[in-house]
Design a protein that fits this description.
Two copies of one chain form a homodimer. Chain A contains 16 helices and 27 strands. Chain A has 574 residues and is of the alpha/beta class. In chain A, the strands form six sheets. An eight-stranded mixed beta sheet of chain A has the order 8-7-6-4-3-1-21-22. In chain A, helix 11 links the parallel strand 17 and strand 18. The radius of gyration of chain A is 28 Å and the shape is globular. Chains A and B meet through helix 11, helix 13, helix 14, strand 25 and strand 26 of A and helix 11, helix 13, helix 14, strand 25 and strand 26 of B.
C-alpha cells in the first residue's frame, strides 16, 4: 500500500444534518420507502456514485473520480464526499459497478482509506473487476476487498434488494445496466450506454430484457445524459473502424493513433486493420498496455497477443510504412506518451515528415488549450495530424437523443430521473420524457408505493486527493494553496528584547513575489520597523505576530497591490 | 498613473544575440534590406506585434496583450518581450494600430512602463485612438503619448516608410489594413479582417484599393489566419441581426443579451431591434458602456443615446417584456455582470423563469469549462439560454477560407506570410496560396530586391503583468508561484548555540500543506532534529540553512510525497 499520510485517520468531517436525517439516522419510517441519493455525477460530469437505502440496508452503484479544472492547482483527483459512507459503513451491503471507466470505479482505491471495505462485496463483470483488481494490487490493497463477479442476465439477492444485470454497449467492453427490485418498487440504473447494434465483440445490447422489465413495470429509470443535447444516433464502432482503415490504408509512412486506452473495441479494429494492411502494432504507454493485457484474459474480443506486437525498442527494425503505433495521451496529459513526444521529450517516439497522427478521440472540455498546443507541436515537426472531427475516426460512447428515447420506450418508467451529466444535459434529457424529476448531487428522493418525492437537497463538499493524501478542501488547504500562488509568501523574522519589551529588528524573506534583488523587502522592513518601535511593550507573542503580519501585508499592498501570506516568527535577543 | 512598482526600472533583460544582430545592431548592411520580426501573434492567438526595420528606422504595427491559460496563476496579462524595443527606443518612428481590440492595442499602456513613448507617434483611426485615449487617461498616462489620427485612404510619410491605410471590415468598427512602401518593396499587413459586403455602418471593405495595390505589385502580404481552418465565408452581421430579432420578437418575457462589448455593430442591431419591438435597452457592465460612449462620438453607426437607455436602478419600473438588457461576461469572466448574476451575486440582475439569455458570442478556447458552468447556473434559475451555436446569433470577425482567397487574389503578392494564428491555422492558411513562408514569433525575415529570406529564429520570452507589476517570468517568480501552490511552503526556524557550535531546537510552520493539527510537523521536527544534532559544528549560516532545508524537504517527501518550498531562519541562543 502506498504510504498515505492520514490513511489511519477516523472520519471527522461532519455530514449535513439535513442529509443525515433521511440517509443516515435510524428511523422506523425509512423502512416504508426506498431512499436514493446521488453523491456524484448528477449535475456534473464525473465521479459517479449513487446511494440506495432500503430500511437499514444500503447499496452503492458505482464509485468514480473526476479530474480537477486546470485552475485547481495541487489536486490530482476529486471524489464524492465520503463522510456519509463512513457513517453507515457497517450497513453497506454491496458496491455495484456498471463498468470499468475511472469515473465509475476510480474511487474504490481511495474509499479504502476512509472505509472498512472487508465486509462489503464489490460486484461487477469480469473485465470491470479485472481492471479494478489490477489497480488495487498496484496499490497493495487487494487483500482488503472481496470482488464478486457477475454476468449479464444474473440476478443476485442482496437483502432486501434483488439486483439483476442487463448487458448494455458503451465505449469499454463488458458493461451492464442494473435493475434493483425492492419492496418499494423497481429501479433501473442504465450506467453509461449507447446502443451499438453491431458490437464488435458480439455482446449485444439486451433490448429484450429491458423490454421485459418494462412490461412487468418500472417505477423509476435513472439514465445516462452525457449526450442528451445531441440529436440522432451515435456512430457505431464498426463505422469508426472503416474510417480508420481509410486513413491508414492510403498512407505511405508511419501511422500513430492516439485514443482513450480503455476502448478495446478500437484497439481490436486497429489490430485487424494492421493485419490487413501489413503493419505491425506497437503499444506505447502503460495504460494502453494494461487495458490490452487485462482484456486478453477476460473478454471475447480478438486483441493482439505479445507475439503480434513489436516492442518500441525494436521498432527501428520495422520500415516506417509497416508501423502502426497506438499510444496514450489523446487529452495531452503532460506526462503521456503523445504529449512528451510532441515536445521532443520521449526517448522512443519523435515526429517528423511522413508521419500520420490520428487523434481517435474527442477533446474533453477543459483540455482544449493543451490539446491544441500539442497538435501545433506535432504539425511543427512536419507530421500530418487528423482530428476526430475531420474524419469519422471517433465515436462517443454515450447515447444520443434517439437512443435515449429508445431506452425510455423500452422501459416505460412511471418516473424518470436523468443522471450522469451537467445540468444542461439533464434538462435536455428531461425534455425527451414525461413524468420527469430533475435532481442533482446532494438530493435525496424517496420512492414508495405513493410515488416519488424529493425529501432533501444539500450542497455536498467533495473530497480531494493530491496524489498522496486524501482529505477535504480544508484538510488539504486548497484555498490557501491558491492564495500562495496569487500573492506569494513573506516570512517575517522579528527580533525583540523581551526583558525591556522593545523592538530591535525585522527581516523579510519572500517566495513567489516580485523580485527586485531585495530592494522592495528592505523598504518594507524599514517602514514596518518604524511603526513597531515603541508599540510593542504590552503585547504577548501572539499579539506581536499578528501585529507584525498585518503591518507587513499592508505595506506590500500599498506598494505592489498584493497581500502576501505571512508567517511571522519572534526571536528574543538582548 | 497607477502605482507600478518597477515602473522606473531600466530594462535589464537581455536580448538574444541572434535576434540582436539583425534587429538591433548598427550595421551598414541593414540598409540594404527590410527586416520584419513578429514579436507576438504569429504561432499563437493574441498579443499581436510586428516590428519593421529599414536601415536605422523602425515602425511597429499593433501592440497587443493576451490572457493567460487557467493554470497560470498570478498573471493577469501577457505581452511581447519588450527588451528589444527598449534597446531601439530612440529609433522607433511610429506605432501603427490597425484596430481597437485589446490584442492589438492593450500593451500600449504597459509599454509606457519600459519605454519612453514621448517621441513616438501612435497612429490609428478615430475610434481606435478614442478607445486608447480613454484607457490611457484611466491610468493617468495620457500626457506621455502623441496620438495621430489617420483615415482610411490616407498616406503618411514616416521616413523611409510610406504608410497608407485601407478600410477593412471586422467585428469592431473603424479597422484598417496597412500598406508599407519602402525602398526594398511593398508590404501589406491586413490587420484583422473579414469581408462583410454590407457593413452596418456603410464603411465598405475597400476591395478597389487592395486591387489597385495588387496591380502595382505587392512584394509581401501578411494576412490574418484566425479562421483559416474554416471553409466558406463568414456570416454577415446583417444575418446576425435577423437571427437576434427572430429570438427577441417571439419572446414574451425579459431578454438578456451577452456579447463581446467592442462589437458596436451588434449593439447597433440590438438598438434597432429594441425600437421595433418596443423594448427599452439597458447597458450593464462598465465595458459595454465605455464602448458605446466612445462609439457615439467617433463612428457613423446609430447607437443608443443616454435618453434611449434605462438605468439598471430604474429597470424595475419597466415591464419584463419591454426589457432588453445588454451585458458583458460572455466568456464567464469571474467578475463580469453575467457571471456574477448567474451565481446570484449581482445586486441588479438575477435570473428566473421568463428570462431569455442570448449568448451572442463564441467560446474562446480555454474558457469552455467556466462558460458551461455559468450556463448551467442560468438554466438552474429557470431561464432559457440560447448559445451562438444553436441559432444564427453570432458571427466571427475573421475571414474564412473563401475570404482569405479573395484577399490573396486582390493583392497577388510575390510572397505571402500567414500571421495572427496558432501554427495549425498558419499551415491551413498557407495551403491556400503559393510562394508561402511560414514563420513564428521570434523569427526575422529580410525583404530585399533579391526576394525574401529568413535570417533568424529565436525563442522569445514574453513579459507578464500581474495586475500591478510588469516583468519577466523570472522577475515575477512565475515558476515559484506554481511550486508554492503545488507543494506549499515550510518555514523552518533553527535555534543553535553559536558559541559551542551545537544545534538546540527546530520549529516548522507550514502554509498550503496538508493540515493535521501540527502532528506531521512535529514528527518532522523530531526526525530532522535528530539528524542535525552533532552535525553542524563546521557549518556557516548559509550551509546550515541549506542543510536544514534539504533535510526538511526530504522528510516531507518521505511522508507525503511533496517537497515544500522551504524558508530557513537561524536563531542564536545560549
Amino acid at each position: 500500500m502506498r504510504a498515505g499520510f492520514g490513511s489511519a485517520r477516523t472520519v471527522d468531517s461532519s455530514v449535513s444534518p439535513r442529509l443525515a436525517a433521511p440517509m443516515i439516522a435510524d428511523n422506523a419510517k425509512q423502512s416504508q420507502s426506498l431512499h436514493i441519493a446521488p453523491l456524484g455525477g448528477v449535475g456534473e460530469i464525473g465521479m459517479n456514485m449513487m446511494l440506495f437505502r432500503c430500511g437499514e440496508d444500503y447499496v452503492i452503484v458505482d464509485s468514480g473520480i473526476r479530474f480537477p479544472d486546470a485552475n485547481m492547482i495541487g489536486v490530482e483527483v476529486i471524489l464524492p464526499n465520503l463522510a456519509i459512507l463512513a457513517a453507515i459503513n457497517d450497513k453497506i451491503r454491496a458496491i455495484i459497478l456498471t463498468h470499468g471507466h475511472e469515473d465509475h470505479i476510480g474511487a474504490i482505491r481511495l474509499l479504502a482509506q476512509r472505509l472498512d471495505l472487508r465486509q462489503i462485496p464489490i460486484l461487477g463483470t469480469a473485465f470491470t473487476l479485472a481492471l479494478l483488481r489490477h489497480r488495487l494490487s498496484e496499490e497493495g490493497l487487494s487483500s482488503g476487498v472481496t470482488l464478486e463477479q457477475i454476468r449479464p442476465g444474473d440476478t443476485v439477492e442482496i437483502e432486501p434488494f434483488t439486483v439483476s444485470f442487463v448487458r448494455v454497449t458503451h465505449s469499454i467492453p463488458d458493461c451492464v445496466a442494473v435493475c434493483l427490485d425492492t419492496p418499494m418498487g423497481r429501479v433501473i440504473h442504465t450506467g453509461d450506454f449507447k446502443i451499438d447494434v453491431n458490437p464488435l465483440d458480439g455482446e449485444h445490447f439486451d433490448e429484450d430484457k429491458l423490454r421485459a422489465l418494462g412490461d412487468e413495470g418500472v417505477d423509476l429509470l435513472l439514465s445516462d445524459s452525457t449526450n442528451a443535447s445531441v440529436p440522432g444516433w451515435t456512430r457505431p464502432e464498426e463505422e469508426v473502424a472503416a474510417g480508420l482503415e481509410e486513413q491508414i490504408a492510403s498512407w505511405k509512412g508511419r501511422v500513430i493513433v492516439s485514443l482513450f486506452s480503455s476502448n478495446l473495441y478500437r484497439i481490436h479494429s486497429l489490430f485487424k486493420i494492421a493485419q490487413r494492411n501489413k503493419r505491425i502494432m506497437c503499444l506505447l504507454g502503460r495504460s494502453v498496455q494494461r487495458y490490452v493485457a487485462v482484456g486478453r484474459e477476460t473478454i471475447g474480443l480478438e486483441l493482439p497477443a505479445e507475439k503480434d506486437l513489436v516492442d518500441v525498442k525494436k521498432l527501428h527494425h520495422v520500415p516506417s510504412h509497416q508501423q502502426l503505433i497506438v499510444c496514450t495521451g489523446s487529452q495531452a496529459e503532460p506526462r503521456s506518451v503523445l504529449a512528451r513526444a510532441s515536445r521532443g521529450e520521449h526517448r522512443d517516439l519523435t515526429f517528423g515528415e511522413g508521419d500520420l497522427v490520428l487523434m481517435s478521440c474527442r477533446k474533453i472540455p477543459g483540455n482544449e488549450r493543451r490539446i491544441h498546443r500539442m497538435i501545433n507541436d506535432i504539425l511543427r515537426a512536419g507530421a500530418k495530424c487528423v482530428f476526430g472531427k475531420q474524419a469519422p475516426i471517433h465515436a462517443s460512447g454515450h447515447a444520443r437523443q434517439d437512443e435515449l428515447t429508445r431506452m425510455l420506450d423500452l422501459t416505460r418508467p412511471k418516473c424518470f430521473i436523468p443522471v450522469h451529466g451537467e445540468y444542461s444535459f439533464l434538462l435536455d434529457h428531461a425534455n425527451l420524457a414525461e413524468q420527469v424529476k430533475i435532481i442533482e448531487d446532494g438530493s435525496v428522493i424517496s420512492l414508495s408505493p405513493q410515488g416519488i418525492t424529493q425529501i432533501a437537497q444539500e450542497q455536498l463538499e467533495p473530497f480531494f486527493h493530491d496524489g498522496n493524501t486524501l482529505g477535504t478542501s480544508d484538510e488539504l488547504r486548497i484555498a490557501e494553496k491558491k492564495r500562495l500562488a496569487w500573492n506569494g509568501v513573506a516570512v517575517v523574522d522579528v527580533t525583540i528584547d523581551p526583558s525591556r519589551g522593545i523592538f530591535l529588528d525585522l527581516k523579510i524573506e519572500t517566495r513567489g513575489l516580485f523580485n527586485d534583488e531585495g530592494r522592495l523587502c528592505k523598504e518594507i522592513e524599514e517602514a514596518v520597523g518604524k511603526q513597531m518601535s515603541g508599540q510593542i511593550s504590552d503585547m504577548d507573542v501572539e499579539e506581536l505576530k499578528h501585529y507584525a503580519g498585518m503591518l507587513v501585508r499592508r505595506e506590500f499592498r500599498n506598494r505592489i497591490q498584493r497581500k502576501p501570506v505571512t508567517v511571522v516568527q519572534i526571536q528574543a535577543a538582548t
